[in-house]
Structure formats: C-alpha cells, structure tokens
Design a protein that fits this description.
about 15% strand, 9-stranded mixed β-sheet, 12 helices, binds alpha-D-ribofuranose, alpha/beta, binds calcium ion, 9 strands
Length: about 325
Amino acid sequence: MDRRRIIIDCDPGVDDAVMLLFAGAARDALDIVGITTVAGNVSAALTARNACIVRALAAREDIPVYAGCTQPLQRTPVEAGHFHGESGLGDLPITAPRHGPEARHAVDLIVETLLAAAPGSVTLVATGPLTNVATALAREPAIRRGLREIAIMGGARSEGGNITASAEYNIHADPDAAQAVFGSGCTVVAFGLDATHQVRATPARVDAVRAVGSRAALAAVELLEFSNALPANGPREQGAPLHDPCPIAWLLRPEAFKFRPCHVDVETRSTLTLGHTAVEFRAAPQRPQNVLWAVSADGDAVFGLLTATLARDAAR
Ligand code: RIB
Ligand code: CA
C-alpha cells in the first residue's frame, strides 16, 4: 500500500502526544515528512521540546521536528495548561530530549515541502492553533497545489465550545488563522468536537492500550489517564474525549467517520463568541463548500485502530 505523505502540525499537549505516538507507530501507512510545532496548549518552546520527547518515546527520532510560530496572528496567546499540565505532557516524566528541533522554522518546512511536492500529494494534519498553516498559505499561496487536503482537529457546531460556551480551543486560540485556512479554498477535513466527543478514553479502552505493554503504549496510557483524572473532562468511567488522534485514525480508516460538506466561517471580532465556527451545510454560490465536517465518529473503531497500530509496531 502506498504510504500517505503527511506533515503533522501540533501543539503537544496531552492528546497531541497520543496522536504522535499513534502516527509514529503507523510506519507502514504514513510517510511523516516532519512534525511542525506551534504555540498553543503551552508555549512554542515547550511544544517543540515536547514533540522531541514524544517522538523518542515512539522510537521515531528519524522524524525531524521544526519549531514554529510563537504567538497567534493577531490575538494574545491563550494557553490550555489546565488541560495539559505545566509541562504540556501531563504527568509524564520530563527529561531533556537527546535531539532537539531543527534550525529551520516550521513555516519554512511547510512552504518548501509543499512547493516541491507533486500536485495534491501531501496531507497537512493540524491539531493545534492554525497559526503556522495560515502563515505558510499567506507567504506562498502556491503551496495549495501540493496539498491533498488539510485535516484539522478544531471547531464545534452541535457540541458547543470547550474553551468558551461558543468556541473550541484550537479555533479560539487563533481565530484569524482559522478563518484564513477555512477561506483558503483548500479542501479542509475538520474533526470538531461534534465528532471527537464521540471518541472517549473509557477504562476498558485504556486497559486495551495498556495490554500492548510497549514503551509507546504505556506512555499513551499515562497521558490518557491524566486526561481522565481531570474533573473538567467529566466522570472517569465515561472517559475523556480523545481529540487529536482523530485525523490520524481517519487517514488509516476513513470509514470510522461520517462527514457533511459545508462552508465554515469563523467569528474573529466578538469577544463573547470569538472563535465560533459557523458551519453552514446549505449550499449557495457565495458559500463554496470546501470543508468536510465530521458529524460522527466510531469510538470503538478509533481506539481499536490506536491499540492495533501500537501493538503491530511493538511487535516489529
Ligand atoms: O479542543 C481540543 C484541542 O485543543 C486539542 O487539539 C487539544 O490539544 C487542544 O489543543
Ligand atoms: Ca492540540
């Protein structure tokens, strides 16, 4: 099977870290050109460091990490340490990674990779604020040619918000960047809270990951259990929602999700609803439907895939 060529842009972050362990284990299916990091859950310096720590836990130090934008396009940074811990990696023991990020900036990596790529050959997976992605598109609109799609974790329609009543964190953290990406004309595959809230880290699912027993699986368990212990994530037996692995699960098993085509605009002015995603399913000439909005997710399939992928990699 041809491997999907991807760039992963993220803000590790506990669920970003689980996503990286998942993607790193999917060696046979994913050709990860690089991991780019952005300020979001924690500072840009910490998200870059954390990506280096997690790639080592995944035994994937072959994948380069590139540090990116340190603050949103226009807004002041809004971090989410209350969901990810001071380090950004929950309770994971933190030791300085053997190898740090590359000298090249994340936006340079994204632009140079996509300009050199065959048409429609690269998927950009983004699981943090879209600052790097929007900056790359603004600097070099021609990169759209090399993109197959942009698969993001972000937004909310039927589920309401998780950082405010109206907005999901990634979009709220940089609404101007999000508006630029949704309005770029690129195909955007959006995994908002409407879908990710259907993917819960129940105790039984966490136990199945634990049974894999590898260093990567046990790190994933520690991260999942950190999230499950947070009161904000609801009762432990229900399990915390697992957001960022969803785009990776979709790449590996698209049928685990259902989508509706739509047009998305982002609130970039109101303080009350800043970062709200206005998801419009009704087609109209002035509203190009360039977004596929995930309306449902099969939580058993996503966790089954995560567990099987980690187990297969552990058995290599
Ligand atoms: O709303 C969930 C998103 O915000 C996830 O990407 C999580 O890592 C945080 O960044
Ligand atoms: Ca994230």
